[in-house]
Write a structure and sequence with these properties.
three-stranded antiparallel β-sheet, alpha+beta, 139 residues, single chain, five-stranded antiparallel β-sheet, 29% helix, Jelly Rolls
Length: 139
Amino acid sequence: MDIKTFNFSVRTEGFTDLIDITNQVANIISGSEFSEGSALIFVPGATCGVTTIEYEPGLLQDYPAFFERIIPSGINYQHDYTWHDGNGFSHVRASLQGASFTVPFAAKKMLLGTWQQIIIVDFDNRSRNRNVIVQVTGK
């Protein structure tokens, strides 16, 4: 098994912005030398996460609303007293979400479900340029 590392950038709006990156990951896998293996998708930073979701209008509203219910943005967080940047909620949300996701592939195609897309979720309180790392392991 060999490992190759790729990356690409994504512009986000923050505030639980959901960005579908399925096509970018698929293009990396199909353009790689590997026919089967797994791809690790990772977003550096403490206010962004990666997961899979059905990327449809209802869930694009439900997912941010879920995070607002369990980790509200309008309350005080100790992090805000330390750094005075007002994004304590985004750090807690990102830690719950997780910064990586792994997907298997065969015949250069991801083995995702029919309605399953890979997304990054930017929880920060401002827009950002996010670096997405895709590390492909395969043969």
